[in-house]
Write a structure and sequence with these properties.
The structure holds two protein chains of two kinds. Chain A has 15 helices and eight strands. Chain A is of the alpha+beta class. Chain A has a domain of 273 residues: Cytochrome-c3 Hydrogenase, chain B (Orthogonal Bundle). In chain A, the strands form three sheets. Chain A has a three-stranded antiparallel sheet. Chain A has a three-stranded antiparallel sheet with strand order 6-7-8. A two-stranded antiparallel sheet of chain A has the order 4-5. The chains are: A alpha+beta, B alpha/beta. The interface between A and B is large, with 41 and 37 residues.
């Protein structure tokens, strides 16, 4: 059968964010896949070098709209490592609590997206409704629903009251009940089983070889979690299990995330009940002495790493960010081979991709000297001229 | 194991690495000459379970480039540090040993102009295909072509 190469993206109804897949198919079966990223590259790594540490906390939060807190945690930790300061235990617990809130919100969001991709939009409505509860908690505690501005170098910026602690416990009760319902749905609902079982299989050997991270890695039956294997913040003191699945497919990823939700709910309860008393932050100097540090966290999507090099000024010499999607996009291209065209959205969504995280680094516009306002006709001419330059047109 | 790995690496990499050190947060830094990079990576992979490359960082420190390969070996994060002279910023590809390095090496070339030898698939990754010869944006001496003087 003859081979056809289909471009999917950068803009495509099935994709939530811009990336381009060049998919070679024979009939319905994919024989080769290639991913082109970089479409929302924003020049952040260059920007970090020109901003102070205090400003960078807020920029790192904007690397990703979903796992914003894990990035600011990483940056604050790396800076604390170089400064040699240790946040007070209450601060560490609150920071960890927010990290786990973020995991709840991200996994519920993923569950909705996965439901949507498999044609089960009821699941999207349910899980995104429950996600609102955790966003409300975020708003209650930090003042913001998405970019929380809660982390700071040396601890966190706001304490919680007893009333807030009670509200957290109350919400956790509701979420536990809902999560158990989702697990029942995920294990028994025919639409989910038919669309996910045996789809997007990544063997343990391939997952290790291609350096997969996070729930994708654990769904390939590798027991690795940065929270357990390289504990940071308060994770060393918390009781929790690392969830794995041996089904290796998208269904395995669903099970891993759903069970992780339960673990996370229990961790949040534990943290509230065992919240240490005392300060929530220590004051730190504005200038950071020369040094280097690596901070790793387990973002909802997997291992996230920041490398920080300081030079004695109030601005970093270099901050390198590697978000989990960058590590996982490689195994997506691999898993797509042999799959059906109809399964592309589900396999891609399986890793919970976040292109904003992945692309972070550079440059806003192509070869314009400065930004300018274009009329509709000018814009049309510009776009026609741009497309005619494209080689594959 | 904590003290174990550093001691093991120090003796195993003797003669290969220039230095092996551990910081306060138990990150291990191994400085290797450019020619020994593949050998060191191979030892980490085969003898210390270092199959997972987390990422590659590259720094521009003026007269040379510093490339850091962050590899998870067992329970520890081991960083291989290689210095490349500015007039010849080339390094052997790690992809044949650690396939996960493929995208990170493309990134090295894209943003810092490090030439990665024997790389199987060297295309642009982060910058647009129409970027052309506008330079390597993460270098410290890079001038933003959109501004007359450059810089922020």
């Amino acid at each position: 059968m003859s081979r056809v190469t289909i471009p999917i993206g950068p803009q495509h109804p099935a994709l939530k964010e811009p990336e381009r897949f060049m998919v070679t198919v024979e009939g319905e079966t994919i024989v080769d896949a290639d991913v082109r990223i970089g479409h929302i590259h924003r020049g952040m790594e260059k920007l970090f070098e020109q901003r102070t540490y205090m400003q960078n906390i807020h920029i790192t939060e904007r690397i990703c709209g979903i796992c914003s807190f894990t990035h600011s945690t990483n940056f604050c930790q790396a800076t604390e490592y170089i400064l040699g300061v240790e946040p007070p235990r209450r601060g560490l617990y609150l920071r960890t609590l927010m990290n786990e809130f973020e995991r709840i919100h991200s996994h519920l969001l993923w569950l909705g997206v996965a439901g949507h991709e498999m044609g089960f939009d009821t699941l999207l409505m349910w899980s995104w409704d429950d996600r609102e509860r955790i966003l409300d908690l975020f708003e209650d505690i930090t003042g913001n629903r998405v970019t929380h501005a809660y982390n700071t170098v040396g601890g966190v910026r706001r304490d919680i009251t007893d009333a807030q602690a009670q509200r957290i416990l109350h919400t956790m009760d509701i979420l536990e009940e809902r999560t158990k319902a989702y697990i029942q749905v995920g294990l028994n609902e025919q639409t989910i089983l038919k669309r996910t079982q045996g789809v997007g299989i990544l063997t343990t050997a391939d997952a290790k070889r291609l350096c997969a991270v996070g729930p994708r890695l654990r769904a390939s039956n590798v027991k690795y979690d940065v929270r357990k294997n390289d504990p940071y913040a308060a994770y060393g003191e918390l009781p929790f299990e690392v969830i794995t699945s041996d089904t290796l497919d998208v269904h395995g990823q669903l099970v891993v995330r759903a069970l992780e939700l339960l673990e996370t709910v229990n961790m949040c309860r534990y943290m509230i009940k065992n919240l240490p008393t005392g300060d929530i932050r220590v004051k730190v100097p504005r200038k950071v002495p020369p040094g280097e540090a690596i901070s790793r966290t387990e973002a909802p999507r997997g291992e996230d790493i920041h490398y920080l090099r300081s030079n004695g000024t109030d601005k970093p010499e270099r901050l390198k960010v590697r978000a989990p999607t960058m590590a996982n996009i490689l195994n997506v291209a691999h898993t797509l081979k042999g799959a059906n065209i109809a399964d592309i959205p589900l396999i891609v969504a399986g890793i919970d991709p976040c292109m904003g995280c992945m692309d972070r680094v550079l440059i806003l516009d192509r070869d314009k000297e400065t930004s300018k306002v274009m009329t509709k006709d000018q814009l049309r001419e510009y776009s026609i001229a741009w497309y005619e330059k494209e080689a594959y047109r | 194991m904590a003290e174990g790995l550093i001691a093991q690496l120090t003796s195993r990499l003797h003669g290969i690495a220039k230095s092996v050190a551990e910081d306060k947060h138990s990150r291990i830094y191994v400085e290797v000459p450019r020619d020994s990079l593949l050998e060191a990576a191979k030892i980490l992979k085969t003898e210390y379970d270092g199959y997972h490359i987390t990422t590659i960082t590259v720094l521009d420190s003026g007269e040379n480039f510093e490339v850091l390969y962050h590899i998870v070996a067992g329970e520890k994060l081991v960083t291989l540090r290689v210095f490349l002279p500015r007039n010849d910023p080339s390094v052997e590809s790690l992809t044949p040993i650690l396939p996960g390095a493929i995208l990170y090496e493309r990134e090295l070339n894209d943003i810092m102009g490090i030439r990665v030898k024997n790389h199987p698939d060297m295309r642009r990754i982060l910058l647009p295909d129409s970027w052309g010869d506008k330079g390597y944006p993460l270098r410290k001496d890079w001038v933003d072509p959109r501004t007359k003087k450059g810089g922020a």
